[in-house]
């Protein structure tokens, strides 16, 4: 590891041995989620020879953890005096030292084991693409999840009442069951009916064709969408096609619906939901990162995925969101292990100098900075692999740093360690998701931007990301590059958190014990609808979404292009085929946990590898 | 979920152990010897072995040992941090006929300190002690001294002959069992319901969707 660079042990950073230089079927450069998915699938399902390299000394890149990654480039706390209450052992100190950016490296290093801070925190849903891949790939053996307990949408309350004071936020719980809708005092009777009607329709669409059989329909506490709720018993069903105003038809309103945002769709007739309710559905259920996110495609699909995910794992877990234990960085690592167990060779600290497509020999040559030449039939390139000279690639296959710089947008992230939950002390509200729409933020510093939503996810001790009695809050929001980083979250910090424990006086607000913020490139411009070549794909790194969905979608699409038999693979719509097909049911005894062992067949080394190892 | 699990629990304690050390020191051979009482002289990498399960009786308790192998990821020092999650014990192995593997023990120890839980138990194992005297590069005394420095137990084993393999693993299990009781309590008290393990729970989902 880097902090041990100077201890005289030169071989610390050297590989224990050199990997074989024979030709590989697939070389994957980078260990982010999409790269790991491709590597593990090619190795396990495709039975290909796979070499998985990363230029960095840690797994995951933008899907990794901050404790191991670098990249804090600006401080969040401009003008703030931020107390550090964390010692090397993670215990709370009496004195408050002020963190400066220079301290970050050593603080992070010392807290490595106590905290698991993701560069780009994401969670999955019980029935989303990631969960499907985790189940089918056996990566479930390396992962555990906690449910996301509750979602909230923020409402600003500075409507004249708080004289001149910057708007305070109110956390409005997003109802997750029929009973919660009925009990919700905020909703008018008309709106309750409207919301119920909308969700019922959405649910009918969501469960169409799944063959799920719903039993009792009278359980008011059942989550909406959970098997057992009454909706499917209702004879009155809308046509699925008209629900999201799919495609042109003759419907006059549908021509414009293609460009309708999710939020507008909810607020307009016939849904007629209020702004708060629309925000709740658009941002806490569909996870739209912007108020302008279009209804068609991703947003409506996410709504359906969400509804399918609720109660998927039985009545004890009615929530849709699943948080990986130890943070979302574990997910990419789990797939790296799937690849390794299936025979892929993995090596970190392998910076690449040049990649060259040799059309005449129909392979791609990879030249490492160590001077080794490797060849492969297919190449996958992830983000954060340094400057690589690319020869023989089309312009649109190359993403240069310059192109990144010219992007209008960027993703802002902040990570806070706090001493109490931001939504009160309720036992069940520690792992929560909060959407803060622009409408709730009259106090924000940049007035001209009213588009992007701030997502806040709070994790507690039980998620194994932080020690007892602390919380980690991940903030994420897209913005224009011109907005200074410290302005993006300033009003949120002021409103929700308290800077210092003031003279022993307890505030109700959570105190920030430690925090950092950073900016990553917006990758939306780099995401392509289909990959063009069958020998090379490039992945852009973590996006601004709070779920893994888009990344898995991208990986599936890439996989189809690289390995699909179908000549039309690239014209297939994004994502259709899973990377890991559903394993055939091997009978009931496979279901018994104690039958699970982790061994497969052992593979004899080929002669090259044998020779290499013997030479050591 | 916790209740469903405890109703027909085939074991009392679950212990997760890891094997760590340079490639070629015989980690997988130790594992295969212990779990299946097998030994193969042909040189195999650890490809394909994820973990092995062995249930033993210890003081009238059924202890289910889940022993994880490195899946070859030690070859280029690329063990994932995730490998260490939840481990109760780590068996750090070197090869008595390979000086470098012994020198690297310190690096592995740092790796363990950086990633494994503070409560995790460690033991040091010098494998291949069945070798001819002329081939031995690391004396038993040096192994003992290093283990003493780390404050961990030491075993010289032979996966080939089976010498002290059983002893090394079961002593590890014994040390971890006392520890894992408290560990289990901690995780149960952490609030917010149990953890969701997709495999166990997906059963329910797939059942309802296929009928």
TrEMBL record, chain A:
Biased composition (Acidic residues): 590-604
Ranges where the RAE1/2 domain occurs: 411-525
Coiled coil: none
Protein name listed in UniProt: RAE1/2 domain-containing protein
InterPro entries with a match to the protein in the record: FAD/NAD-bd_sf, GDP_dissociation_inhibitor, RAE1_2_domI_C
MF terms in GO: GDP-dissociation inhibitor activity
Organism listed in the record: Bathycoccus prasinos
Signal sequence residues: none
GO biological process: small GTPase-mediated signal transduction; vesicle-mediated transport
GO cellular component: cytosol; nucleus; Rab-protein geranylgeranyltransferase complex
Residue span of region Disordered: 580-604
Family in the record: Belongs to the Rab GDI family.
From TrEMBL, chain B:
Keyword entries, A-Z: Cell membrane, GTP-binding, Lipoprotein, Membrane, Nucleotide-binding, Prenylation
CDD domains (UniProt xref): Rab8_Rab10_Rab13_like
Presence of the UniProt keyword GTP-binding in the record: yes
SUPFAM superfamilies the record matches: P-loop containing nucleoside triphosphate hydrolases
Keyword NADP listed: no
Chain segments annotated as transmembrane: none
Location of this chain's protein in the cell: Cell membrane
PROSITE patterns: RAB (PS51419), RAS (PS51421), RHO (PS51420)
Membrane topology: Lipid-anchor
Gene3D superfamilies in alphabetical order: P-loop containing nucleotide triphosphate hydrolases
Span list, region Disordered: 180-211
GO MF, any single term: GTP binding
Gene Ontology CC terms, in alphabetical order: plasma membrane
Homology family: Belongs to the small GTPase superfamily. Rab family.
Name the record gives this protein: Uncharacterized protein
Organism: Bathycoccus prasinos
């Amino acid at each position: 590891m880097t902090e041990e660079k100077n201890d005289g042990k030169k071989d610390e950073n050297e590989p224990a041995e050199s990997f074989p230089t024979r030709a590989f079927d697939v070389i994957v450069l980078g260990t982010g989620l999409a790269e790991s998915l491709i590597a593990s699938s090619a190795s396990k399902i495709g039975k290909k020879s796979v070499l998985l390299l990363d230029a960095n000394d840690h797994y995951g890149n933008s899907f990794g953890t901050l404790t191991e990654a670098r990249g804090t480039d600006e401080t969040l706390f401009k003008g703030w005096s931020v107390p550090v209450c964390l010692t090397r052992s993670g215990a709370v100190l009496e004195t408050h030292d002020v963190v400066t950016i220079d301290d970050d490296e050593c603080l992070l290093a010392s807290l490595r084991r106590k905290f698991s801070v993701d560069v780009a925190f994401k969670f999955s849903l019980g029935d989303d693409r990631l969960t499907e891949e985790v189940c089918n790939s056996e990566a479930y053996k390396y992962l555990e999840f906690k449910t996301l307990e509750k979602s909230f949408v923020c409402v600003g309350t500075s409507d004249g009442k708080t004289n001149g004071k910057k708007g305070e936020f109110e956390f409005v719980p997003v109802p997750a069951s029929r009973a919660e809708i009925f009990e919700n005092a905020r909703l008018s009777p008309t709106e309750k009916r409207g919301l119920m009607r909308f969700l019922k329709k959405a649910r009918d669409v969501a469960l169409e064709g799944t063959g799920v059989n719903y039993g009792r329909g009278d359980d008011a506490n059942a989550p909406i969408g959970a098997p057992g709720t009454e909706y499917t018993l209702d004879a009155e069903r809308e046509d699925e096609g008209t629900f999201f105003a799919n495609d042109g038809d003759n419907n006059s309103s549908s021509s414009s619906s293609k460009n309708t945002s999710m939020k507008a769709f909810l607020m307009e007739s016939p849904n007629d939901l209020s702004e708060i309710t629309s925000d709740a559905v658009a941002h806490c259920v569909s996870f739209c990162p912007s108020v302008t996110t279009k209804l068609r495609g991703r947003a409506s699909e996410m709504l359906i995925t969400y509804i399918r995910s609720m109660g998927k794992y039985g009545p004890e877990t009615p929530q849709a969101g699943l948080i990986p234990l130890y943070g979302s960085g574990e997910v990419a690592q789990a797939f790296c292990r799937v690849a390794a167990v299936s025979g892929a060779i993995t090596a970190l600290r392998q910076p690449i100098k040049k990649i060259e497509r040799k059309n005449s020999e129909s392979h791609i040559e990879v030249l490492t900075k160590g001077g080794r030449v490797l060849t492969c039939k297919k190449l996958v390139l992830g983000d954060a692999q340094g400057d690589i000279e690319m020869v023989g690639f089309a312009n649109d296959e190359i993403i240069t740093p310059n192109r990144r710089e010219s992007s209008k947008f960027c993703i802002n992230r902040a990570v806070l360690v706090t001493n109490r939950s931001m939504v009160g002390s309720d036992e069940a509200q520690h792992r929560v998701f909060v959407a803060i729409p622009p409408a709730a933020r009259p106090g924000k510093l940049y007035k001209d931007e009213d588009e992007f939503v701030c997502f806040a996810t709070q994790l507690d001790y039980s998620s194994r990301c932080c020690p007892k009695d602390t919380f980690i809050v991940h903030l994420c929001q897209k913005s224009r590059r011109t907005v200074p980083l410290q302005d993006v979250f300033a009003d949120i910090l002021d409103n929700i958190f308290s800077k210092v424990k003031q003279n022993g006086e307890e505030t109700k607000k959570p105190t920030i014990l430690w925090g950092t913020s950073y900016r990553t490139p917006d990758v939306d411009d780099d995401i392509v609808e289909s990959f063009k070549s069958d020998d090379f794909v490039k992945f852009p790194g973590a996006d601004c979404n709070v779920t893994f969905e888009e990344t898995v979608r991208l990986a599936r699409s890439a996989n189809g292009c690289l390995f699909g038999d179908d000549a039309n693979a690239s014209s297939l719509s994004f994502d259709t085929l899973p990377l890991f097909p559903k394993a055939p049911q091997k009978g009931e005894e496979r279901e018994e946990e104690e039958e699970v062992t982790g061994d497969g067949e052992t593979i004899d080394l080929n002669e090259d590898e044998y020779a290499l190892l013997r030479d050591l | 979920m916790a209740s469903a699990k405890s109703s027909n629990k085939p074991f009392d304690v679950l212990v997760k152990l890891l094997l760590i050390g340079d490639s070629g020191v015989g980690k997988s051979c130790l594992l295969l010897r212990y779990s299946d009482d097998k030994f193969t002289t042909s040189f195999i990498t650890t490809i394909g072995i994820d973990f092995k399960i062995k249930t033993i009786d210890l003081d009238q308790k059924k202890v289910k040992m889940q022993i994880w192998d490195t899946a070859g990821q030690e070859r280029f020092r690329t063990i994932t941090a995730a490998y260490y999650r939840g481990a109760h014990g780590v068996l750090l192995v070197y090869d008595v006929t390979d000086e470098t593997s012994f020198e690297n023990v310190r690096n592995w120890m740092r790796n363990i300190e950086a990633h494994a839980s503070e409560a995790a138990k460690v033991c040091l194992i010098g494998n291949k002690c069945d070798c001819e005297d002329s081939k031995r590069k690391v004396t038993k005394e040096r192994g003992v001294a290093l283990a003493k420095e780390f404050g961990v137990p030491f075993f010289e084993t032979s996966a080939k002959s089976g010498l002290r393999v059983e002893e090394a693993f079961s002593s590890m299990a014994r040390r971890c069992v006392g520890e894992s009781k408290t560990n289990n309590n901690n995780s149960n008290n952490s609030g917010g319901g149990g953890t969701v393990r997709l495999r166990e729970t997906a059963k329910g989902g797939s059942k309802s969707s296929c009928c």
